[in-house]
Amino acid sequence: MRQQVFELVRADEHNFDIPPFTLVQAIDPDTEDSLLHVAVRAGSMNGVVSLMERFGCVMRTCGFGPRNPFYIWERHAFIAHQNRNGDTVFHVAARGDNLKLVIMLYRFIDSHWSATCPDLEDPEDLDGEEAPENWEFPETADEFESSPSLMLLITRNRAGRDAASEACCVGNYEIAEWLDAVANRLDPEGNRRSKKGISDMVRMVKEGFGYTLMAGRKQRETRQNLSNSFSKLQV
After folding, report:
1. Where are the domains of the chain?
2. DSSP result, 58-87
3. Which domain of life does the UniProt lineage start with (predicted)?
């Protein structure tokens, strides 16, 4: 089933019904690509939209209570996944020479409604808002809301390159300049890209997107599985 879904996405066919959590777990055994990696590598903006919209809004709740941390985690895990080469979808997009696709991915980090229409850049076309890529720290974006975006921009692959450096390597200088400009708006003094700054961002992102809770859940499941296994042992 997993292989069939990967083949469908490679062919830019998205007429399949898979819940978001299953999408997160669908990883190519050879490349460790996610389905989002595959869609981005194919340059399919429709494919990216189709996959990301399956997660709905990150504000989904259980009944009328607070937003469910599990839904927040699964969506971020999907877009932040690194493959065997350490590439995020931004590394892949940076090599693909499609700036609009890069803009789309960036806006999806923030679940911004304009992600599906990356051609809209002027505030007049964005209901008076600045496009997410034009937000500036700390004036129009605080540390908490901008950390996930900056973290993905500066994530390095196994070759030691972030997405902007990856774009430069293949001659996509417009994309490289765009990525660098966005990162500099979110970190004008460079402090957030220092060793301590990165450590603080990692902690903030893990807490904000429920990674700590998910790690605890995984440990509990492991302990329960071990307990169940031991209960079946015959002495």
Report:
1. 1-221
2. TT-BSTTSSBPHHHHHHHHHHHH---TT--
3. Eukaryota
Instruction: Name the fold adopted by 1-221.
Output: 1.25.40
**Cα 13 to Cα 42: distance, rounded to the nearest angstrom:** 12
Stretches where the chain sits below pLDDT 50 are 58-66, 222, 225-235
Q: What is the C-alpha to C-alpha distance for residues 107 and 102, in angstroms, rounded to an integer? A: 9
Contact 224, 187 (CB under 8 A): no
Q: In terms of C-beta density within 10 A (0-12 exposed, 13-18 middle, 19 or more buried), how is residue 196 classed? A: exposed
Residue 191 token pair = 């402090």
27 in helix, strand or coil?
strand
pLDDT at residue number 221: 52
**pLDDT (tens digit, 9 = 90+) per residue, 186-234?**
999 999 999 999 999 999 999 989 887 777 665 555 455 434 433 333 3
Per DSSP, 141 falls in state S
- How would you class 75 by CB atoms within 10 Å of its CB: exposed for 0-12, middle for 13-18, buried for 19 or more? buried
